[in-house]
Structure formats: C-alpha cells, structure tokens
Amino acid sequence: MGRRRKGNRRKRQKLRMQFHSNSTKQILDDEVDRERYYQEQEKYLEGIVELKNDFLSRTILVGSVLPLDIEKNRDNLKRFIEQQYGPVQKIGIDRKGGGRYPRARVTFNFKKDAEKIFGGTSLLEASKAQTQVKVPCIVVGYRGSITVRPAMVYKGMMNDDLNTSSTIEVNTIELSLGHWFPQGKDACINVPGLDDIARDSVNTWIQENDNTSNVNPIVRIDMNRAVVELDITHCVQGVMANTQTVISFRFKDLTYPIKLCRNAKVLFYRDTSAYFFLFELRHPPRLISTTIDPETGFESNSRLTSIDQLPALGLCLGYRIAVQPVEINRMLNAKAFRKMKSMGLFQCDDDLDLLYHAEDFRTLQVGNKRPQLEKDIASLLSHRFGLTLRSVLDANSCAWFDVISDKVKGRNILSLVKDREDDLAERVLNEMREMHGKTRYPAQMFHALYEADVEADEVPMSVPDFCVRLPRVLITPLRIIVTGFQVEMSNRLVRKFIEKFGFSQEAFIRLSVGDENSDKLFSDDLSNQVETRIKNLVLNGITFGKKKYRFLAYSSSQLKEQSLWMVCPEHGWDVPKMRSSMGDFSMCKTASKYAARMGQCFSTTIDTSFSGTNGNKYGDLITWTKEKFGFSSNSKSDDFKTIRVNDKLPDIISAAGMEHSDGVGIIRKELLESLLNEVPFGPKNKKDVSAIQVRYGGAKGVLVAWDFAKLKNSYCNGYDVCLRPSMVKFKAPYDTLEVVTIARRVPYYLNRNVIMLGQHHGISIRTFQDLQGCHIDSLNKMLSNASFASTFLPCLSGPDTGFMETLQNMLNANIQPQLDPFLYSCLQCIRSHHLMNLRKKARIHVADGAVLMGGIDELGLIPENCIFLQVPKPSYKISVAGRGRDEYTVVKGAVMVTKHPVMHPGDMRMLTAVDIPALREHKNVVLFSQHGERPEADKMSGSDLDGDQYAITWDRRLFLANPSEPMDYSPAKNLDESRTICDDSLLQHFIDHARNDNLGRISMLWIDHASINRDAGCHECLVLAKLASIAVDFPKSGIPAVIPKELMLNQSVPRAHWRERKGLPSFHCESAVGQLYDQVINETKSKYNPQQECIAVAGRYRDSNGQILHIGDRKYICKSKKEIFDPLFARRLGWEKDDIDILLLDFAEYQRNLYDSQLLELMNQYKIKSEGEVTTGCILKYHKLHKRRRHDVSEEVRRQFRSICSSFRLEFFTAVYYLVNGNTRFFSFDDNFVDDVILDEDLEWIEAAATGAPNSTSEEMNHKARCWSWRLAAAYYVATYSNYTHDVSSNSVLFSFPWVVAADVMSLFVVMTKR
Fold it and tell me: CA-based Rg of the chain, rounded to a whole angstrom?
C-alpha cells in the first residue's frame, strides 16, 4: 500500500474527501432540480393528455372525398355528417393521409355523436383496434362512398385545435457560439483553498475569433416535447423549398437555466442591442434537416453533420443569442412562459421585471490556438497522458484556452503533468474529468489535488491481472471525443499483443458510435451524411497525437452496442498481419460471417496460461498444449502441466439430421476442478461446478465435466478435453484454453413475456399476484429481520456473489439492519433494485426454479422429453467465512422449461425431470436427452448448447395445461457475397446492422400487440416471434428482419399504462401484467416515510429512487454516530484503549481514509452516489455513457470493487502478521522502516486462522492470530463508526470499510463467543 507518512496526511486526506463530497452534493442538487423539472413537466403533460384524449374522442378522419380545397365540397361534407350524426365543431384538412386527395379532419361537438359511426364504441377504443368504416355518400364521396376512421395525434394539434399555447417563438438578432461561465458555478468551489477564486468569478462570455456568425435564428420553445429549436432555415444558403434546418436540443440538455443578461458596458435600459439569452449545453445539439412532401404532407428528417455558417457547432457548447426588448416582452406575456419558469428553463423571479433585472456579463475574445494546443499535447506528453488530458477537455471540464493560460508559478497544466507522469497524475486528471461542472483554473486545481494525493500518501486503484485499462472514443454526428480510460476484462488478441509483442495498452481503443448525448443512434439518425462521416473516419483512420488508429474488428456483442476495435499497430505489425494471426477465415464467404468469426477472438476471457509473474495470485497457471501429454487422473493440481485435446469427438445427430450436441464437448472432471483453482471468479466449492463456457483456438462452446472411465467412449481414450465439430468454427493458432464463464445456478425470475404467455396458456392472474406479493413481502421483511435476511439473500440475483458473503457474515455477527447504516443501505439498495425490476420488467422471483447452463447426456440415459438437474436445497445458508457446503437435491417430476427471451407460445416446454444415479455428480447444470428427432434446446427459441441458459421451474402453479407446438427456427440462408471481403464491406455490415437492428422494436411491438389484443398468442405476436428469430441471427446471416407496415403502431395508438409513455395516449390494461404493475406502484409509493426513518439512515440524504447517499447533513451525521456506535461490541473484540490500541487506531484511520478515497473515486468514475449500489453492484441508474453497456459496466464496477477490497484485506492480514510477531514499528509511520519479506504461506495461515478455516498450524498460534485480528478489526470498527474519529466538517460518510475487510473475522468472533 506504499510507505506511510504522518505529517499533514489527515489534513490532505480530508481535503480530497471534501472535494469528492462537495462534487457529489452538486450532482445531487442538480438531480433534485432535474427531478423537480420532471415533476412539473409530468403535471403539465397530464393536463395536456386530458385535452388530447377529449379532442381525439370527438375527431374523425374522412377519406375518399372529393378535393377539400373547394369550399363547396367542404360545406357538402359538413352538411352530410351533421344530418347523419350530429353537430360538427370544425372541419380541417389532413394533408398527410396520402392518396389522390387529402383527408378531412372532422371534430364533433359531442363524443356521443362521433361514437354513432362506430356502433357506440368510443373513438379511443376504435383507434386502438384500428377500426375503419365505409359510409355511402354520393354528395362528396369518391366513387360514391367515404371512409371514416378515428383521428390520430398530429404535429400542430395542440396549437391549431386545442389552443394550449404550448409553443413560444422569439425572433432574434444574432447567434454566437462560444463558452459561457456563469457566476459562482466554477468547479473550483469544491476544492478547499480555491473556493474563494470560484466565488469571486463573474458572468463571463468567451468567444473564439472565428465563431462570429450572421445567423439570426427563430427560437421556438415547444412545451409538449420539452424541446428548444433554433430555426436557421432562412440563414442557410442553397436550401431547397419545403426544407427546414433547425438546431434542436431538449430542456434537460441545458447545464443551467437560460439567463437573460446585458453587456456590462451598456447602461441604458431598453437598449435595442443590449440583451442576450446566454446558456450552455451539456453536449452539442442535434442538427436536423426536415423535408415536407408538398403532395402528401409527409415529413422526413435527416441528421446533418455540419453547417457552413456555424463551423464550431460541435466544439462550442455556449450560446449567446441577441434579442430585442420587444421580443422579450412578447415572450413574457405568453401563456406558457410562467410554466417554462416553473420547469427551470429560465432563471428569474416571478415578481421581477425580467428586462430591468437582467444580469451583467463581460465578453472576452481569445485567438484560435486550439490546433496549436493539440500539437503541444502530442509533443509534450506521453500518448497515454495526452489521451487522458484530451478526455478532460472533451468532457467540458475545462476549456482549451484555460489549459494554456491558467498557471501555477508560471507553469500551465501541460507543464505540470509533464513533470508528473505517474499514476497519481493520471488519477487526478480522471477526477477532473468526472467532476461536476467545469473550471477556469485547471492548473491550480490539478496542483492542489495532486499535492493532496502526495501528502496523503494516496495509492491509485490497481488493475486486476485479467483486466486492462483501455481508452474509449465516441464518434457522433458532430464530434469525436475521448471519454477516458476504462477497466475491462481482456481478450485473447489484446492479451497476446500486449504481453507477447509489447504493445502498449493505449495501442487499442474501443470506438463507439452514438448520438451527441451518448445514446444509441437509431435507424432514423443514420442519414447519408452521418453514414459517410462514420465510414470516412473509420476507414481513413483516426489520429490522436502521434498515433493513427486503424479499423481492426468487432464482435457480435459490439454490434449491439454499436462499437468496434481500432488499433495503432506497433513493433512492425499492421492490421492485415494482426488479422492473419487470429486464424484462417477463408471459409467465410460473407462479411457478416467473417466479422462474427473474427469477433470470437475478442470475447472477454480468463487466459489459463502462465502469467509470468512470480508470487502473483493468478500466476503459475496451467499451460495447455495439444502436442504434449502428461495428465494423470491421480496427479495433484500442481502436477498439471499439459493436457491432451481431441477435436474429433462426433456430434450426436438425430434421425432427422439435427444436432443434439450442438456446441457442447467434454472435459475430464479432475482437470476441471484443478482449472477452477486458477479462475479468479471461480467458486470456493469447486466440486459444485460441472461445466464451463470456453474458447479454444477457433472453437467455442461448453465443456461438461465427466468421469472418462464411466463414459466408455473410445474417442476419449488418452485425452483430457474432447471437442466436437459443431464447436470448431475456424482454424486458429491458439492452444490455450480460455474460460468465458462458469456454470452456476442463477435464481429464477418471471418476466413480462413469460407472464403474458403464461396467461395465454391458462395460468391465473391470481397465481402471479401471489408470487409477486410473496416477493414484495420478503423484500420488506429483510430490512427488519436479520435472521430472515440471512436465508433470503442467497435466493436473490443482483448482488455480487462474493459480496453476498460479507452481508451474510454481518448478519451472522448479529448486526441488525435497522441499527447498522452500511447493512441497511445495502439491503435497501437490493430492495429498490428488485422493486424497480418488478415495475419495469415484472421480474418476479420464483423460489422453486433455477436458470442453468445446458449440456447433453453423454451416457444416453435420459429418455426423450426428459431432463436431469440437481440444485442446492432452498434451506441453504452461508456459514462462517462462507465455507459452508451446499446440500443438493435432484428435481423430479414435471417441470416447465424455457429460454429467455420467450415470444412464441411453443417456447414454453413441459418436460419431465428424472433422477438417474449415474448423473448425480452433475450439479448446477441441466442435461438434455440425446434422443428424439428434434433437440429440446432447438424447440426453445432455436437455442443450442454453446452456453445458452435455460429457465426451469418446478412450481406447479406455473405448469401449462395445454402446451403449444414449438415454432420452426430453421435459420435463413446467408446472403451471397461475391466480392472480396474488405474493410469497406465489414464496415457496411456494421452500419447495416445499426440501421436494421429491429430486435428491440420487435420486442416492444410484441408486448404492445399482446396487451392490445389481450392475447400473447395472437397472429401479430406469432409473426413478430418469427421476425425476432431473424433479427437475432442478423449479425451472422446479414439478413435483416423487416417489420410489415400493418404491424407498426402509430404513436397515437394508446398503449398499456404500464408502458409508462409520458405525454402519449394510454389505456388502463387489466391483464396480469397490468394488475401486477399496479400492485408494485402501490408498494413503491409507500417505499419509505421520511418521518419514520430508522436510526441506520444516519443523517444521510436519499435520492429520488430512495437510495441512501454517502452525503448528508453534517449535524445529523455526527449525532447519529453517537447512536449507532456500539462501544461494547468494540470492547468484546478486544478494544482496550491502551497504547497499542491507539497505535492500531491511527493505522486504521489511515487505511479507512485510503479506502474511502478509492471508493469515492470509483463512484465518481461511474457516477454512482450510493455506497449500497457500488458495494452490492445493484446500480439503479446508469450514466448516459454507460446505458448501452449496463451489464458490462456493472461487472466492471464489481471487479474494481473486489480489487479494492482485496488490496485492503491483504494489508489487514499483513498488519496481523506483524502483530503476531511482535513488530509494532509497522504501525509507527516511520519512513526508515523496512518491510519484512512475507511468504504467501504465512499470510494464508494468518487468514485461515482469523477466519476459522482449517490449517496445519498449532492451536496456540491460531488463537494468537485470531486475538490480534479481532483487536485490529475493533480498531477498524472504531475508526469508521465512532463519532470521535469523524470529521465534523465533512458532509460525506462511508461505513463499509470494516465489513468489506474483516466481516468474516468479526463473524467468527461472535460464533466462537457463543460457544
């Protein structure tokens, strides 16, 4: 952990903690404002929806009419309708209907008259059913009749027909782009020592010399859509008729509310050129060109990538718009302006004259030295630090001119970083990038934070050996930005070139394509200009500093994320040579297949080859080769050096020619147990694992463990691993076995699709309600009942499995949730996580169920339509130190099996679970039969056994009375591609996928049709299920799933209320999903009562989701610590307040401050504000940069948190080692102290003794180690919980430190003292 210095250590650590907590407080305040805005907008939209529904319930569209531009025809139509049905309020023309003539939009005075046309059915119901009626009408009907259907929402409806004045237009004088620094908002206000500078700042507008323009947009503010548009059509040359060009952004894209200011030099009130709207965006706006077809009235939008009049649109986020006072007064008198203020769009008081009280601002000009700064970064800094500093600029944390001008002792931030290119400097730059707001003093901030790190002896977070820290880059329609370095699991290719060929980590970048706000680009956004921009940048290469990155490859999962790999080859390599080293892809005749096979090399895996690092936890691993033999089933794990692989094990083919064994091979059982010892995420009980998902050369799939002696298969003789032809996808020069994941039991949850199909199969709504009610009751009960929580937690998914043991150990130590702030915040986070999933996905926990990896019965003992599975008993409870063994049970009888996502009624299968003694060695895996014409896996969504997970339940309430026949999932033929596969064709497939990735849309349409038709087995859902299977195969087949027009639903068609579409039509759905949703909403509305907060909240704030944050009111935090601190617990552990304890307490405080700093750094990196979220891994709200990678980000957070815990746990047992040996100088912060050379065996013994694990050391030494570990744990507890060690000036507090380090140590103490 580094050498410790006393000095100003505490003072500097507190400075950093204050920086983190103040930054988080600003983020929280910002979110509170945004939440208030959402509430105001929701109230506004609720009123608008009522108006919409009333208007739509009285309005029809009349087609097949004679030209309505002729007044006589309109009068005849009105007279005819009034005679037939009733009085008409208004007749308009709908020019979007297509056809020869436009349709008439007819609004009745009364709903009942409109309903006569549809036989008394309300127009909203008729619209939902897409009803159309043909009415004879000789007077104006085309060919003697007219067609009538309910009207739909259309653009301009709110203003033209409802007169809600939801839009304000303001004419302007001039638009300028630049940089806006409002008074008192500088991020330096969070840095002690620099806060005075920040508070003394004034409103400042900085403009680059080349950013003046002659553009005077029309500002259009639309309240219904919460959008601001700057219409610049009249300023753009060469624009075609019927085309509109606008700069568009949402209200929530504003960094701060819009300010009305006047130039400080202008003193005369009402000066016609003195007033300006000043604001800044969080990211560049959308530049849109809209073309209106004059014949049909249809609008088509196209994204633009540049505009000549505003070349800095993607670079400058500040906007200054000059406005005349007469326009401002007109805006103030508009009906919607007061609502805009309440929603936070404008910053002003209601009772003030906006013009008279306009704030002053100053204007500064800076030259265009941005290109020179790029050169300076490339020449002065290493590439890694150049990218890191650029990420600070791209995050708008500071401006390029302040990087040049702000100095400390005559040196700007470039010079400061150049002299300090170390881990601490990189950490400080990352903190500056992630901080809330921006600063004009980057050099001073960097200097202050860096010095705080040095004085506090801060140690940056380490990167696990199986991970790499890679730069991420985002391409948008307007810019290219570096989003920073992120830690992620490595893959085969990256490992190979970094470890074997000496590539730097920054030689690789993960490039993502997205919108300006980092959201996914949808098909409508991929205009010709955007597509051309992406192609040019990727194919021509992207240059950062002195490196030029070239397109390398992408995987199937990256296609979904719209990301790809780029590389700057080093040491004489180039991209073609790198691709050749991956393997032989000559059998791939299409770009889609070629890309999928290359992507196999980029699967995140654990390499089981020798790491080359002595003493490393993951070193001395097994080296696997095909040529050498040396495995002996009687050998110990340390004797394994080589294995023998046979890739000719025949596939099991049915009489119909289908593969039962598609994607699955076998591995010797003893070998799997040895291999699991070297996998960092492997379980403690190795015998409970029966299968692993692997990559081996060009092979992929699952290896199931078997006793080779019982198989009696000649293909296994003399081999340790056997692969089938269905697993081998291409030839590759890799002989290393790589582990992707381990087969383990995952708790079973229902979801909306399963519930809808279950209702189709006759399962009662009451069944689902009972299951959900039991789930909710259990979530509530675990907050107050420690005994119940200890048995319920292992049944849940969500929390990190390793951290689950920490919570279990706390509960075993008799820690009560309502009295301990850390345990309570974790349980509250888990509860909120599950309630959110219940609301958004109807994820209902089923105790009698499991999700398991699939395998095949190699012995052929399982009959057709049967399976074998063995899972832990539900009474499972982790024992002390997590070393309890699970008790297993074989499931017997009827079971319902499916694979998520499920969309076809036949995907839900009723099978029989059988108990076969010869298979009882297989646990936490489902074995399918090898008998039958069609594999059972294929009957469920066309699955196979290469790693697919199957959901199984033996809860009789969920059995199907009349199962449906499975759908035919025969894959479509691949596209023929005669041209040579090259970068251009690979990238075209990438763009085609982004444009035609309809899986999400198909899934939502399936849900909508199922709810509208009240049947998940309706014709529309069956068609969509087939389309979904085509969309799933698109990355490999290249064949897109085209949704028929008749299945598309207009936005005006009401959806089920549980779809939560704000501001759009909806209906209250009485289906099972609708009633379950209502049940959860009632629960979440009463999720907590601020007046009845328990003591464990400890004065901390909650966010809008009810999560307990790490910041709060200083006074109440300090007061609560007096209540939650248990001095008796510390004394029982051995705390005596003598000289030794004071020394240990000093050490514990130092360790806690380091831990808190690293944990806050991790939280800031991923924008996590709750200690419960970062420790459990149950993240409720993801930052915009991470929304597309939720699962990956969650795993990255968990890995980094585990790494933090491991490092501090190692330091804890190292300290115990010194205490056992009587060496207290370790705790004296003496710079001259030399650490002992401690063997791994010594620390393993200390840990085993302290946690109650069996070991070969004498009981006397074990007792001594336990006593010292308890005493040090007491010091950790006191340093964290005691109000005497709390910094009263800080509003930040974390409670996890003693538990993530020593929960099992303290749990052992409680158990032993009970004895």
Answer: 33
